[in-house]
Amino acid sequence: MWVTVRDLVGSCIKLNWVTLWAQVLYDFTAEPGNNELSVREGETVTITNQSIGGGWVEAQNSRGEVGLVPEDYIEVSYIVSVDVKSMEEMPAELIPRSVSLLQATNGNDPWSAWNADPSGGSTNNWASNPEGTQTGKSAPDPWAPVSHGHPQAYQGPGKKTKKKKTQIASGTMVVLLLIRKFCLVSLSRFPGFSKSGPELYLLCKQLVKGKDRLPIYVGEVGPVWSYPETQLDCVVADPKKGSKMYGLKSYIEYQVTPSTTNRPVNHRYKHFDWLYERLLEKFGSAIPIPSLPDKQVTGRFEEEFIKMRMERLQGWMTRMCRHPVVSSSEVFQLFVTYKDEKDWKMGKRKAEKDETVGVMIFSTMEPEAPDLDLIEVEQKCEHFSRFTKSMDDGVKEILTVGHEHWKRCTGPLPKEYQRIGKAFQNLSSVFTSSGYQGESTLTDAMTAAGKTYEEIAQLVAEQPKKDLHHLMETNNEYKGLLGCFPDTIGVHKAAIDKVKEGDKLVAASKITQQDKVTMAKRASTMSYALQAEMNHFHSNRIYDYNRVMQLYLEEQVKFYETIAAKLRQAHSQFTTM
Amino acid sequence: MWVTVRDLVGSCIKLNWVTLWAQVLYDFTAEPGNNELSVREGETVTITNQSIGGGWVEAQNSRGEVGLVPEDYIEVSYIVSVDVKSMEEMPAELIPRSVSLLQATNGNDPWSAWNADPSGGSTNNWASNPEGTQTGKSAPDPWAPVSHGHPQAYQGPGKKTKKKKTQIASGTMVVLLLIRKFCLVSLSRFPGFSKSGPELYLLCKQLVKGKDRLPIYVGEVGPVWSYPETQLDCVVADPKKGSKMYGLKSYIEYQVTPSTTNRPVNHRYKHFDWLYERLLEKFGSAIPIPSLPDKQVTGRFEEEFIKMRMERLQGWMTRMCRHPVVSSSEVFQLFVTYKDEKDWKMGKRKAEKDETVGVMIFSTMEPEAPDLDLIEVEQKCEHFSRFTKSMDDGVKEILTVGHEHWKRCTGPLPKEYQRIGKAFQNLSSVFTSSGYQGESTLTDAMTAAGKTYEEIAQLVAEQPKKDLHHLMETNNEYKGLLGCFPDTIGVHKAAIDKVKEGDKLVAASKITQQDKVTMAKRASTMSYALQAEMNHFHSNRIYDYNRVMQLYLEEQVKFYETIAAKLRQAHSQFTTM
């Protein structure tokens, strides 16, 4: 997805594109005959076409060469001009992370009016603003609240603008802003903020009725989604190389076969990515939608990579299929059962126009249970927040330990067993040279023992693929899922805060008493949704960890038993004297 | 054993002690109440009493403090004066490694006459001679021939002295020589050189008859020693702390019980050392006498050390008991069966006066087989030399690999299993906090799996003591044994060379024709002895490696089976859904 500034801030700020400028983050070597452009880390390019799609942009380097570059390999900056007046209305979440003043068109320095950072006062060299250059490179902490992510950053325009308002030139003065793509994408991950705050739902007039209705029942474990009788399942298989643009661009197409129709449809990675964006947009406020496996550009046609990506796409699809809300959604059904290209194109257009997105998804939910009071809602939310944070830590610990174990099992450990094996064999061949009669039993046995240790070396090196791999993949999936919770929980916390403000808002005549009652009721609905989702998460978690631990231990048992059997065989060759 | 310069060169050089001076090689901290002296690396002390024994000398530091210091911790230099004329007769093996000129008593510089090294010309600062200071620190290569050990060293006095004879002042001129104890001890390990060359035996007039006779038979595998019907065995046990010098010095006494009398005798480490020196002196030219376990000073009263030393003394005793020639010798029998203190003292005195030592041991040997021709003798010797060198390499490889494996098994590997175990348990306790009902089966199983990996960590860390330990100890013993062969084989090669010179020596009337025939016959006897010894070595080697490999693999099988069983148990706790 190519997020535009217009999407994000268009509603409140009048802005014009000036240019699209990008800095290369990693070396990229063009694959021959693929219309690609080789770029080096640190190089600067201009974006000549951002609507290529599939994770690619067309860029021009300083030598005038034009070609496709993976968008993940570059950091794009949008240089836009905005009316200085609009600065007051700039969303607080956007500015601290992403806006630097480039230059003012009159003598006044409007920057000083709304940014206390003295380095921000430099007027025509954006690079001299250390905040601006650092933001794009350091990974943001998804667990940190957005508005506190950057301690030294501008604290939001609302308050400061009011204080120093007199310093701002009024009228038509224009400033140039540099907005990093990174920040935009990052913001787009916060559905509650990118589209609207929870108040959009809390205070909206009409709720969705009819077929889009999402009931929430109360089961044995508490609130639960409505589960279908038979669970959808999809097989992702048979990756094939295709091409487009008269053969200039190659890609890999996967066959996706749903258990309902048993009829395969073809999808490229970019289609999965499109589905992911739709699901995120539509359900992200209520349901954690895990990211797809990483985009990768270099070596993307290599067999090993294709196999791994397919395995992970399969994992992602299985998880989506297992979710009753996601799997029964129109967009997901379109993805797995579209009839032909026309059907797909039309469905796509419809999905992109869907207005029940962001927090509005809650408007479709109907808990069949009495409303919860705010204290209960808040306690549940706090509990889920603590749990998901702890589990995130636990999962990351397993990944760290597992990664180190993987390295040892495939690196130094088998080398050591191999050396032990070689040492036994070498000594055996020295013994053979003794000329002393009747020691062949010993030397044969020692050679066999040596070979056994060489076999053990190989077993050790191959074992992680058999057991640790699944443990790592499952935990990786959960890391991805858990990484979505801060956003989901953030929306709930914002809603709770809004409800808490209820009396104040009524007193200030910003909302009616009825609005206040509605808000509390809807916060309860959001809580039921969160609880249903947590219960879905827990039940899947219990299933997944049971399965993966069983698999891991089963393979570990086999591994140690195989080694023991090999050694017992080696042992039997020595004579007892 | 405290080797004196007088022992080594007394016969050919008139010399007088001037002083005993020592440099401290390692820090040593005195044990309180043990009459010891703390010394620091690099410090200089004077030796006030070298006849303390048991690996100790009495030393005085620069502050006048006197106390006992372990002799291995210091490098003693003997400063002796010799008649300059005697320099011509100085054994070639001694000078290059150990003699530096300190000062001449007259104006001439006699050093320049017999050492081409310009730095040797400095007359009163021995430390300025880099050869001198380096020799003591670098470990000598036992496989390198003595005379080539030091490429830049003086090439032996015989030739150079002749060339530059005119430069040496004649008469009573005296020079001071610095002789490192290290070099003396090192030389003492070459029985062929320290006592006499093989010609002493090859040309001696009378051979030993009677009870000291050592027959060599020809068995199935070739020449063999005469083996007793029942093999002697000794148990080394029950280490007890004793003291002497009115309680000033403490020591550990071991109980040695031979299978013949079943009556225990007590021995300190220094008694074992005395026995070792006697056996080396008596049999070292024909039979590899492995060194005792290392002397160690710091922590020598610690339980772990005492246990390890006892185990190794046991190993050494067992090996000596197994040797038919060694175990039946008078000195060995004295050691294991002496009746009382008086018996022991008398036996000791007698053993120290034994004249059938060094190459003269061959005079007791009587092969019951036809004489071998020189070519055969030479081929056998070459073959044994190659074999023992290869086996030494093989054994060292196992020790190196085993050492690294030991470190991994007791260091990073168990830590990793522990971290895996902790990670499972941590995730399990996060799961427990979910509040979701009915997941105790999973969390109990995950906790159990985590604990299992902690148990595996402990098994891994303790395993080397159960299996690798024996493998390492056996190979260490063999490393010690094999380290004796270069000397033993060196004596044989020297004898072969002497026999080859036979015709020349007859022509020069240095020996008679009969002497030549005798020499060849005796070289054949030496070869039978070497073959009998090699056959003894081979038969023991086959037994030892069979046994140790069986033990190792047996314990390895148990180890892997135990882990597999533990994991199977952990696996069974997960439910199949």
From TrEMBL, chains A, B:
Binding site for a 1,2-diacyl-sn-glycero-3-phospho-(1D-myo-inositol-4,5-bisphosphate): 268, 270, 309
MF-aspect GO terms: phosphatidylinositol binding
UniProt entry tagged with the keyword Iron-sulfur: no
Region entry Disordered, spans: 110-165
Pfam families associated with the record: BAR_3_WASP_bdg, PX, SH3_1
Polar residues: bias regions: 120-137
Domain SH3 residues, every copy: 17-79
Protein's name according to its UniProt entry: Sorting nexin
Gene: SNX9
